[in-house]
What does this fold into?
Amino acid sequence: MKALVIDDSRTMRRIVARALEDLGFEPPLQAEHGRDALDQLEAGAEVDLACIDWNMPVMDGLTFVSQVRANPAWRHITLMMVTTEAEHGQIVRALAAGAHEYLIKPFTTDAIRDKLDLLGLVPAEEHV
Amino acid sequence: MTLAPDGFAFVADLVRRRSAIQLAPGKEYLVESRLLPLAREAGLDVDGFVDRLRTRPTPADQDAVVEAMTTNETSWFRDGAPYAVLRETELPRLVAARGGAGRLRVWSAACSTGQEPYSVAMTLLDHLPAPMSSEIVATDLSEQVLERARSGRYSQLEVNRGLPAPLLVRHMVRAGTEWELSAAVRQMVSFRAHNLLDAPPVGPFDVVLLRNVLIYFDLATKRAMLDRVLRVLRPDGVLLLGAAETTLGVHDGWERVTVGRTSVYRPLAARTAVPVPIPAAAAVASPFVPAPRPAGFAVPAVPSPAAAPAAPLSRGAVR
It folds into this structure.
Protein backbone atom coordinates (compact mmCIF):
# COMPACT_ATOMS: atom_id res chain seq x y z
CA MET A 1 0.00 0.00 0.00
CA LYS A 2 1.21 3.47 -0.88
CA ALA A 3 0.27 6.63 0.95
CA LEU A 4 0.76 10.36 0.61
CA VAL A 5 0.81 12.43 3.80
CA ILE A 6 -0.08 16.09 3.30
CA ASP A 7 0.55 18.44 6.21
CA ASP A 8 2.47 21.66 6.64
CA SER A 9 3.88 20.38 9.94
CA ARG A 10 6.92 18.19 9.38
CA THR A 11 6.43 16.65 12.83
CA MET A 12 2.85 15.70 12.04
CA ARG A 13 3.87 14.28 8.65
CA ARG A 14 6.44 12.15 10.42
CA ILE A 15 3.92 10.92 13.03
CA VAL A 16 1.31 9.97 10.44
CA ALA A 17 3.90 8.43 8.13
CA ARG A 18 5.35 6.35 10.93
CA ALA A 19 1.91 5.15 12.01
CA LEU A 20 1.16 4.10 8.43
CA GLU A 21 4.49 2.28 8.17
CA ASP A 22 3.69 0.47 11.42
CA LEU A 23 0.46 -0.66 9.76
CA GLY A 24 2.31 -2.11 6.78
CA PHE A 25 2.37 0.78 4.31
CA GLU A 26 5.44 1.57 2.25
CA PRO A 27 7.31 4.64 3.53
CA PRO A 28 4.76 7.31 2.54
CA LEU A 29 5.34 10.20 0.17
CA GLN A 30 5.02 13.56 1.87
CA ALA A 31 3.74 16.96 0.76
CA GLU A 32 3.73 20.32 2.53
CA HIS A 33 0.42 21.52 1.10
CA GLY A 34 -2.28 20.63 -1.39
CA ARG A 35 -0.49 22.11 -4.41
CA ASP A 36 2.68 20.19 -3.58
CA ALA A 37 0.60 16.99 -3.35
CA LEU A 38 -1.19 17.67 -6.67
CA ASP A 39 2.18 18.27 -8.33
CA GLN A 40 3.37 14.87 -7.13
CA LEU A 41 0.20 13.14 -8.38
CA GLU A 42 0.42 14.93 -11.72
CA ALA A 43 4.04 13.77 -11.99
CA GLY A 44 2.74 10.19 -11.76
CA ALA A 45 3.05 9.33 -8.10
CA GLU A 46 1.18 6.09 -7.35
CA VAL A 47 -0.98 6.51 -4.24
CA ASP A 48 -3.69 4.37 -2.63
CA LEU A 49 -4.36 6.65 0.33
CA ALA A 50 -3.92 10.36 1.01
CA CYS A 51 -3.96 11.67 4.60
CA ILE A 52 -4.79 15.35 4.41
CA ASP A 53 -4.53 18.21 6.87
CA TRP A 54 -7.15 20.94 6.50
CA ASN A 55 -5.32 24.20 7.12
CA MET A 56 -2.20 24.57 4.99
CA PRO A 57 -0.59 27.43 3.05
CA VAL A 58 -0.82 27.64 -0.78
CA MET A 59 -3.65 25.07 -1.07
CA ASP A 60 -5.76 23.80 1.83
CA GLY A 61 -6.91 20.24 2.30
CA LEU A 62 -10.50 20.80 1.27
CA THR A 63 -9.43 22.29 -2.06
CA PHE A 64 -7.04 19.39 -2.60
CA VAL A 65 -9.88 16.91 -1.98
CA SER A 66 -12.09 18.71 -4.51
CA GLN A 67 -9.29 18.77 -7.08
CA VAL A 68 -8.57 15.06 -6.71
CA ARG A 69 -12.24 14.18 -6.97
CA ALA A 70 -12.52 16.27 -10.15
CA ASN A 71 -9.99 14.06 -11.91
CA PRO A 72 -11.32 10.59 -12.85
CA ALA A 73 -7.76 9.27 -13.12
CA TRP A 74 -7.47 9.62 -9.34
CA ARG A 75 -10.82 8.03 -8.51
CA HIS A 76 -9.11 5.07 -6.86
CA ILE A 77 -7.35 7.21 -4.25
CA THR A 78 -8.87 7.00 -0.77
CA LEU A 79 -8.97 10.39 0.90
CA MET A 80 -8.84 10.78 4.66
CA MET A 81 -8.79 14.16 6.37
CA VAL A 82 -6.45 14.20 9.40
CA THR A 83 -7.03 17.52 11.10
CA THR A 84 -7.72 19.46 14.28
CA GLU A 85 -10.84 20.92 12.64
CA ALA A 86 -13.56 19.18 14.63
CA GLU A 87 -16.82 20.98 13.99
CA HIS A 88 -19.80 18.98 12.76
CA GLY A 89 -20.24 21.26 9.74
CA GLN A 90 -16.62 20.94 8.70
CA ILE A 91 -16.83 17.15 8.66
CA VAL A 92 -19.98 17.38 6.58
CA ARG A 93 -18.22 19.74 4.13
CA ALA A 94 -15.21 17.44 3.79
CA LEU A 95 -17.40 14.39 3.14
CA ALA A 96 -19.47 16.36 0.63
CA ALA A 97 -16.27 17.39 -1.16
CA GLY A 98 -15.34 13.74 -1.53
CA ALA A 99 -13.33 12.74 1.54
CA HIS A 100 -13.97 9.14 2.56
CA GLU A 101 -12.99 9.44 6.20
CA TYR A 102 -12.18 12.03 8.79
CA LEU A 103 -9.74 11.58 11.66
CA ILE A 104 -9.53 14.30 14.25
CA LYS A 105 -6.24 15.20 15.93
CA PRO A 106 -5.07 14.15 18.43
CA PHE A 107 -5.39 10.50 17.61
CA THR A 108 -3.78 7.21 18.53
CA THR A 109 -2.29 4.62 16.20
CA ASP A 110 -5.28 2.44 17.11
CA ALA A 111 -7.59 5.13 15.75
CA ILE A 112 -5.72 5.23 12.44
CA ARG A 113 -5.91 1.46 12.22
CA ASP A 114 -9.66 1.55 12.94
CA LYS A 115 -10.19 4.11 10.18
CA LEU A 116 -8.08 2.18 7.67
CA ASP A 117 -9.97 -0.95 8.61
CA LEU A 118 -13.24 0.83 7.81
CA LEU A 119 -11.75 1.79 4.46
CA GLY A 120 -10.53 -1.74 3.77
CA LEU A 121 -6.93 -0.58 3.74
CA VAL A 122 -5.39 -2.51 6.62
CA PRO A 123 -3.04 -5.18 5.29
CA ALA A 124 -4.36 -8.70 5.96
CA GLU A 125 -1.65 -9.57 8.47
CA GLU A 126 -2.89 -6.76 10.69
CA HIS A 127 -6.17 -8.57 11.28
CA VAL A 128 -6.39 -10.68 14.42
CA MET B 1 12.70 0.60 25.25
CA THR B 2 11.02 0.04 28.59
CA LEU B 3 9.32 2.68 30.64
CA ALA B 4 11.39 3.42 33.76
CA PRO B 5 9.82 2.05 36.99
CA ASP B 6 9.45 5.47 38.58
CA GLY B 7 7.85 6.76 35.39
CA PHE B 8 5.38 3.89 35.46
CA ALA B 9 4.62 4.54 39.13
CA PHE B 10 3.99 8.22 38.38
CA VAL B 11 1.59 7.46 35.52
CA ALA B 12 -0.18 4.76 37.55
CA ASP B 13 -0.67 7.22 40.39
CA LEU B 14 -1.97 9.91 38.05
CA VAL B 15 -4.44 7.53 36.42
CA ARG B 16 -5.53 6.15 39.80
CA ARG B 17 -6.17 9.63 41.20
CA ARG B 18 -8.03 10.78 38.12
CA SER B 19 -10.02 7.67 37.25
CA ALA B 20 -9.83 5.21 40.16
CA ILE B 21 -8.40 2.72 37.73
CA GLN B 22 -5.60 0.58 39.08
CA LEU B 23 -2.58 -0.06 36.92
CA ALA B 24 -0.82 -2.88 38.70
CA PRO B 25 2.89 -3.59 38.22
CA GLY B 26 3.22 -5.67 35.09
CA LYS B 27 1.22 -3.17 33.02
CA GLU B 28 4.35 -1.26 31.99
CA TYR B 29 4.08 -2.36 28.41
CA LEU B 30 0.42 -1.40 28.30
CA VAL B 31 1.20 2.08 29.63
CA GLU B 32 4.08 2.50 27.23
CA SER B 33 2.09 1.46 24.20
CA ARG B 34 -0.80 3.77 25.08
CA LEU B 35 1.47 6.73 25.74
CA LEU B 36 3.61 6.24 22.64
CA PRO B 37 1.22 8.07 20.27
CA LEU B 38 1.00 11.00 22.68
CA ALA B 39 4.77 11.07 23.08
CA ARG B 40 5.27 10.96 19.33
CA GLU B 41 2.86 13.78 18.87
CA ALA B 42 4.90 15.83 21.33
CA GLY B 43 8.09 14.92 19.48
CA LEU B 44 9.39 12.98 22.50
CA ASP B 45 10.00 9.38 23.50
CA VAL B 46 7.79 7.90 26.22
CA ASP B 47 10.28 8.55 29.04
CA GLY B 48 10.69 12.12 27.85
CA PHE B 49 6.92 12.57 27.71
CA VAL B 50 6.46 11.21 31.23
CA ASP B 51 9.28 13.46 32.40
CA ARG B 52 7.48 16.46 30.91
CA LEU B 53 4.29 15.32 32.62
CA ARG B 54 6.09 15.34 35.98
CA THR B 55 8.10 18.51 35.65
CA ARG B 56 5.71 20.65 33.59
CA PRO B 57 2.23 19.21 34.13
CA THR B 58 -0.61 20.64 32.07
CA PRO B 59 -4.30 19.72 32.31
CA ALA B 60 -4.27 18.86 28.60
CA ASP B 61 -1.41 16.36 28.95
CA GLN B 62 -2.92 14.84 32.07
CA ASP B 63 -6.33 14.47 30.44
CA ALA B 64 -4.77 12.91 27.36
CA VAL B 65 -2.87 10.37 29.48
CA VAL B 66 -5.90 9.35 31.52
CA GLU B 67 -7.98 9.11 28.39
CA ALA B 68 -5.37 7.06 26.56
CA MET B 69 -5.25 4.64 29.47
CA THR B 70 -8.99 4.22 29.84
CA THR B 71 -10.81 4.45 26.56
CA ASN B 72 -9.15 2.01 24.19
CA GLU B 73 -10.92 -1.13 25.31
CA THR B 74 -13.91 -0.67 23.14
CA SER B 75 -14.59 0.95 19.84
CA TRP B 76 -17.45 1.59 17.46
CA PHE B 77 -18.24 -1.24 15.07
CA ARG B 78 -15.40 -3.18 16.68
CA ASP B 79 -13.66 -5.44 14.16
CA GLY B 80 -16.05 -4.33 11.41
CA ALA B 81 -16.80 -7.76 10.00
CA PRO B 82 -19.45 -8.83 12.55
CA TYR B 83 -21.49 -5.73 11.79
CA ALA B 84 -21.16 -6.35 8.06
CA VAL B 85 -22.48 -9.87 8.59
CA LEU B 86 -25.31 -8.57 10.74
CA ARG B 87 -26.22 -6.03 8.07
CA GLU B 88 -25.82 -8.19 5.01
CA THR B 89 -26.72 -11.70 6.14
CA GLU B 90 -28.30 -12.06 9.54
CA LEU B 91 -30.72 -9.12 9.58
CA PRO B 92 -32.17 -9.95 6.14
CA ARG B 93 -32.52 -13.59 7.23
CA LEU B 94 -34.27 -12.69 10.49
CA VAL B 95 -36.48 -10.07 8.84
CA ALA B 96 -37.59 -12.64 6.28
CA ALA B 97 -38.22 -15.22 8.99
CA ARG B 98 -40.44 -12.74 10.88
CA GLY B 99 -42.32 -11.84 7.72
CA GLY B 100 -40.98 -8.29 7.86
CA ALA B 101 -43.02 -7.45 10.95
CA GLY B 102 -42.80 -7.56 14.71
CA ARG B 103 -40.03 -6.65 17.06
CA LEU B 104 -36.40 -7.68 16.82
CA ARG B 105 -34.73 -8.05 20.21
CA VAL B 106 -30.98 -7.74 20.71
CA TRP B 107 -28.87 -8.38 23.82
CA SER B 108 -25.50 -6.69 23.99
CA ALA B 109 -23.75 -8.43 26.88
CA ALA B 110 -20.83 -6.75 28.72
CA CYS B 111 -21.59 -3.61 26.75
CA SER B 112 -19.05 -1.43 28.55
CA THR B 113 -19.46 2.27 27.71
CA GLY B 114 -22.08 1.61 25.05
CA GLN B 115 -20.26 1.72 21.74
CA GLU B 116 -21.39 -1.81 20.89
CA PRO B 117 -25.14 -1.45 21.48
CA TYR B 118 -25.17 2.00 19.89
CA SER B 119 -23.33 0.60 16.84
CA VAL B 120 -26.06 -2.03 16.62
CA ALA B 121 -28.69 0.70 16.98
CA MET B 122 -27.20 2.66 14.07
CA THR B 123 -27.14 -0.53 12.00
CA LEU B 124 -30.79 -1.26 12.78
CA LEU B 125 -31.84 2.32 12.05
CA ASP B 126 -30.36 2.02 8.59
CA HIS B 127 -31.23 -1.57 7.75
CA LEU B 128 -34.35 -2.68 9.57
CA PRO B 129 -37.47 -2.26 7.40
CA ALA B 130 -39.92 0.31 8.72
CA PRO B 131 -42.71 -2.02 9.85
CA MET B 132 -40.32 -3.73 12.24
CA SER B 133 -39.38 -2.31 15.60
CA SER B 134 -36.45 -3.22 17.76
CA GLU B 135 -35.31 -3.36 21.34
CA ILE B 136 -31.67 -3.46 22.37
CA VAL B 137 -30.95 -4.57 25.91
CA ALA B 138 -27.41 -3.67 26.90
CA THR B 139 -25.91 -5.03 30.10
CA ASP B 140 -22.74 -4.63 32.09
CA LEU B 141 -21.87 -5.32 35.68
CA SER B 142 -20.33 -1.91 36.24
CA GLU B 143 -22.82 0.84 37.09
CA GLN B 144 -20.04 3.30 36.42
CA VAL B 145 -19.68 2.37 32.76
CA LEU B 146 -23.45 2.02 32.39
CA GLU B 147 -23.86 5.59 33.57
CA ARG B 148 -21.42 6.74 30.92
CA ALA B 149 -23.18 4.62 28.32
CA ARG B 150 -26.57 6.09 29.20
CA SER B 151 -25.22 9.61 28.84
CA GLY B 152 -24.58 8.96 25.15
CA ARG B 153 -21.64 11.38 25.27
CA TYR B 154 -18.21 10.51 23.98
CA SER B 155 -14.85 12.24 23.83
CA GLN B 156 -13.09 13.14 20.64
CA LEU B 157 -10.66 10.26 21.13
CA GLU B 158 -13.57 7.86 21.57
CA VAL B 159 -15.41 8.89 18.41
CA ASN B 160 -12.14 8.54 16.51
CA ARG B 161 -12.20 4.84 17.31
CA GLY B 162 -14.00 3.08 14.51
CA LEU B 163 -17.03 5.31 13.99
CA PRO B 164 -17.33 6.03 10.25
CA ALA B 165 -17.39 9.78 9.62
CA PRO B 166 -20.71 9.63 7.72
CA LEU B 167 -22.34 7.97 10.75
CA LEU B 168 -20.70 10.43 13.12
CA VAL B 169 -22.25 13.41 11.39
CA ARG B 170 -25.59 11.66 10.94
CA HIS B 171 -26.06 10.44 14.50
CA MET B 172 -24.01 12.80 16.68
CA VAL B 173 -23.73 16.49 17.44
CA ARG B 174 -21.00 18.42 19.20
CA ALA B 175 -21.63 19.09 22.89
CA GLY B 176 -18.78 21.24 24.13
CA THR B 177 -15.60 19.24 23.74
CA GLU B 178 -17.58 16.02 23.41
CA TRP B 179 -19.99 14.45 20.95
CA GLU B 180 -23.55 13.49 21.87
CA LEU B 181 -25.65 10.77 20.29
CA SER B 182 -29.00 11.68 18.80
CA ALA B 183 -32.10 10.90 20.82
CA ALA B 184 -33.19 8.53 18.05
CA VAL B 185 -30.19 6.27 18.66
CA ARG B 186 -30.20 6.59 22.43
CA GLN B 187 -33.88 5.68 22.71
CA MET B 188 -33.25 2.37 21.01
CA VAL B 189 -31.04 1.06 23.81
CA SER B 190 -31.95 0.28 27.42
CA PHE B 191 -29.05 -0.25 29.79
CA ARG B 192 -29.19 -2.36 32.92
CA ALA B 193 -26.79 -3.88 35.41
CA HIS B 194 -26.25 -7.58 34.99
CA ASN B 195 -23.69 -10.17 36.04
CA LEU B 196 -22.99 -12.65 33.26
CA LEU B 197 -22.69 -15.39 35.86
CA ASP B 198 -26.30 -14.82 36.92
CA ALA B 199 -29.50 -15.76 35.09
CA PRO B 200 -29.66 -13.93 31.74
CA PRO B 201 -32.06 -11.06 30.99
CA VAL B 202 -35.55 -12.16 30.05
CA GLY B 203 -35.63 -13.44 26.48
CA PRO B 204 -36.20 -14.40 23.88
CA PHE B 205 -33.62 -12.53 21.82
CA ASP B 206 -33.02 -12.66 18.10
CA VAL B 207 -29.41 -11.49 18.30
CA VAL B 208 -26.92 -11.77 21.15
CA LEU B 209 -23.53 -10.09 21.15
CA LEU B 210 -21.13 -11.66 23.65
CA ARG B 211 -17.91 -10.28 22.26
CA ASN B 212 -14.46 -10.44 23.81
CA VAL B 213 -15.82 -11.78 27.06
CA LEU B 214 -15.33 -15.56 26.91
CA ILE B 215 -11.57 -15.17 26.43
CA TYR B 216 -11.22 -14.16 30.07
CA PHE B 217 -12.82 -17.26 31.51
CA ASP B 218 -11.97 -20.90 32.03
CA LEU B 219 -13.63 -23.64 30.02
CA ALA B 220 -16.34 -24.50 32.52
CA THR B 221 -17.40 -20.88 32.89
CA LYS B 222 -17.41 -20.33 29.12
CA ARG B 223 -19.61 -23.38 28.74
CA ALA B 224 -22.02 -22.16 31.41
CA MET B 225 -22.26 -18.72 29.78
CA LEU B 226 -22.95 -20.21 26.35
CA ASP B 227 -25.58 -22.44 27.92
CA ARG B 228 -27.35 -19.44 29.41
CA VAL B 229 -27.27 -17.60 26.10
CA LEU B 230 -28.74 -20.65 24.39
CA ARG B 231 -31.70 -20.51 26.76
CA VAL B 232 -32.67 -16.97 25.81
CA LEU B 233 -31.84 -17.02 22.09
CA ARG B 234 -34.61 -17.86 19.66
CA PRO B 235 -34.03 -21.14 17.77
CA ASP B 236 -33.25 -19.19 14.60
CA GLY B 237 -31.38 -16.41 16.40
CA VAL B 238 -27.70 -15.61 16.09
CA LEU B 239 -24.80 -15.20 18.50
CA LEU B 240 -21.84 -12.96 17.71
CA LEU B 241 -18.58 -13.66 19.53
CA GLY B 242 -15.24 -11.87 19.49
CA ALA B 243 -12.69 -12.53 16.76
CA ALA B 244 -10.60 -14.75 19.03
CA GLU B 245 -13.57 -16.69 20.44
CA THR B 246 -15.51 -19.75 19.38
CA THR B 247 -18.01 -22.28 20.69
CA LEU B 248 -16.04 -25.10 19.11
CA GLY B 249 -14.63 -27.40 21.76
CA VAL B 250 -16.54 -25.45 24.39
CA HIS B 251 -20.24 -26.11 23.90
CA ASP B 252 -21.80 -28.47 21.37
CA GLY B 253 -25.19 -26.76 21.18
CA TRP B 254 -24.00 -24.34 18.52
CA GLU B 255 -23.45 -24.37 14.81
CA ARG B 256 -20.67 -22.19 13.44
CA VAL B 257 -21.54 -20.42 10.20
CA THR B 258 -18.62 -18.78 8.40
CA VAL B 259 -19.50 -15.66 6.46
CA GLY B 260 -16.67 -13.86 4.69
CA ARG B 261 -13.81 -13.45 7.11
CA THR B 262 -15.84 -13.96 10.27
CA SER B 263 -18.12 -16.52 11.88
CA VAL B 264 -21.48 -16.35 13.59
CA TYR B 265 -23.12 -18.99 15.75
CA ARG B 266 -26.63 -20.33 15.61
CA PRO B 267 -28.34 -22.77 17.95
CA LEU B 268 -28.22 -26.31 16.61
CA ALA B 269 -31.64 -26.99 15.15
CA ALA B 270 -32.62 -29.93 17.33
CA ARG B 271 -30.88 -28.65 20.43
CA THR B 272 -29.60 -32.16 20.99
CA ALA B 273 -26.80 -30.97 23.19
CA VAL B 274 -26.72 -32.33 26.68
CA PRO B 275 -27.36 -29.47 29.09
CA VAL B 276 -24.18 -28.43 30.75
CA PRO B 277 -24.38 -28.07 34.52
CA ILE B 278 -23.19 -24.76 35.81
CA PRO B 279 -19.93 -25.34 37.68
CA ALA B 280 -19.91 -24.34 41.31
CA ALA B 281 -17.01 -21.99 40.75
CA ALA B 282 -19.00 -20.06 38.17
CA ALA B 283 -22.14 -19.88 40.24
CA VAL B 284 -20.70 -17.82 43.07
CA ALA B 285 -22.14 -14.39 43.49
CA SER B 286 -18.82 -12.61 43.22
CA PRO B 287 -17.43 -13.32 39.76
CA PHE B 288 -13.84 -13.73 38.79
CA VAL B 289 -12.82 -11.25 36.18
CA PRO B 290 -9.19 -10.87 35.19
CA ALA B 291 -7.79 -7.77 33.56
CA PRO B 292 -9.32 -6.93 30.20
CA ARG B 293 -7.15 -7.65 27.21
CA PRO B 294 -5.87 -4.49 25.58
CA ALA B 295 -6.15 -4.46 21.83
CA GLY B 296 -3.24 -6.20 20.21
CA PHE B 297 -2.00 -7.82 23.38
CA ALA B 298 -1.69 -11.49 24.14
CA VAL B 299 -4.51 -13.02 26.14
CA PRO B 300 -3.28 -13.29 29.72
CA ALA B 301 -3.11 -16.62 31.45
CA VAL B 302 -6.32 -17.19 33.35
CA PRO B 303 -5.79 -17.91 37.04
CA SER B 304 -8.26 -20.02 38.95
CA PRO B 305 -11.44 -18.30 40.12
CA ALA B 306 -10.58 -18.95 43.72
CA ALA B 307 -7.31 -17.06 43.39
CA ALA B 308 -8.71 -14.09 41.56
CA PRO B 309 -9.97 -10.88 43.07
CA ALA B 310 -13.62 -10.02 42.75
CA ALA B 311 -14.06 -7.23 40.25
CA PRO B 312 -16.88 -5.98 38.07
CA LEU B 313 -17.14 -7.41 34.60
CA SER B 314 -16.55 -4.63 32.18
CA ARG B 315 -14.54 -4.07 29.07
CA GLY B 316 -14.50 -0.36 29.66
CA ALA B 317 -11.63 -0.03 32.03
CA VAL B 318 -8.07 -1.09 32.49
CA ARG B 319 -7.31 -2.82 35.71
